[in-house]
Amino acid sequence: YERIACMTDTFGPRFSGSDALENALDWTREEMEKDGLSVVEEYVMVPSWVRGREFARLLSPRVKELHMVGLGMSVGTPGKKSLVAKAIVVSSFQELDQRASDVQGKIVVYNVNFDQGYSNTVKYRTLGATRAEKYGAVAALVHSMTPYGLQTPHTGATRTTGIPSAAISVEDSRMLARMQARGQEIVIELYMEAHMLPDKPSRNLIVEIKGAEKPDEVVVFGGHMDSWDIADGAMDDAGGAFVSWEVVRLIHQLKLRPHRTLRAVLFVNEENGAKGAEQYYLNHKHESKLTSIAIESDEGTFTPLGISFQGSTAARSILEQIGKAFLAGIGSGNVSGQSIGTDISPMVSISMSCFSCHRDDIHIFSVMLEYHHTQSDTVDKLSPRQLQHCAATLAVWTYSIANLDFLLPRS
Length: 411
Hints:
Its main location: endoplasmic reticulum. It is found in: Endoplasmic reticulum; Golgi apparatus; Lysosome; Secreted. By secondary structure, the chain is α/β, with parallel strands linked by helices. It has two domains: 2-49 and 198-402, Zn peptidases (Aminopeptidase), CATH 3.40.630; 54-193, Glucose Oxidase, domain 1 (3-Layer(bba) Sandwich), CATH 3.50.30. It has helices spanning 2-11, 19-34, 93-98, 118-134, 170-181, 234-253, 275-284, 313-327, 345-348, 361-371, 384-402; strands spanning 39-50, 54-60, 64-66, 68-70, 83-90, 107-110, 139-143, 165-168, 187-192, 195-209, 214-224, 260-267, 291-296, 304-310, 334-336, 354-359. Strands 1-10-12-11-13-16-14-15 form an eight-stranded mixed β-sheet, sandwiched between helices. Strands 3-2-9-5-6-7-8-4 form an eight-stranded mixed β-sheet, sandwiched between helices. 50% of the residues are buried.
């Protein structure tokens, strides 16, 4: 906890392409070396997107500043000038298609019901501008990807297209929908300076404990070091990255030597490009047949419940046995089939066994999504005790898998 606090307090947001990220990586490497760990840096070229100044203002039926934040990788408003247009509010892509003839020259506002959950609504953030542009829209505004309000807009990545895209607060999105339902004309002014710069060099950090018997066979796990430019990123994902580091530190301190190599990877550029994951996969593709499993910790560091697994039925059965044998007593040994994280997705594509660390759903929806990709993702939201629980649980999973008599079977 103290290291996460020091890193996030000292360096703040660690967006890809920023000096803050590189300085945080330097600091983290130095701290790892203080632990007696050998650190490898693998260089990655990452995109460099700049937010610049931005605002959104309701002009009709009344004047009001809208709570907004530009979406990552969006373009700015044309000519670095503000854009003024009527708005049309839709609740789904289906409604957008049905009202296509009304979209030309307008700002499309997606007031999406978040009851469908994050995985079913995030498509409006990533594809909303693309779909709106197809019908002649001049910009897209998206209901923040959260069920909660407090007038806090949540950023996130969007697919770059020819029109600007931003997120607005839950309250503002719902207000605009009510105005439209009354038949009131909605006029919005939008200004965004967002633009791209040339790619910049960064690096993944890797620490290992070499296997005593089969050092060429590997258990890979990790989280990501980058955060959004507006967020300290304590939950997303300094916690996951530092828990992975802590696993290696603990096992090193205990002077344990697993049969296979344990490798923690602190990825960069998960938030807006996944270039760190892509580069790791390219650098280590030759090891893929010798990698038993790839594990990601990027769902917060709350009370661990188990894992979200993707892989063969045989591998799942083995993991269920490990969970029951070593983690059932503390409720952390459950194996479910759910989503797999961004940084291990390249390895999923080659049928490697993979899992994401699964956390307490109550905390994911009541805490993480409340602060996700906002200025409020700060270290005070983390619990030192829960961080310890996550590190201990991940240590059991990784060490147990590394000590099996065989590699986990593939699909």
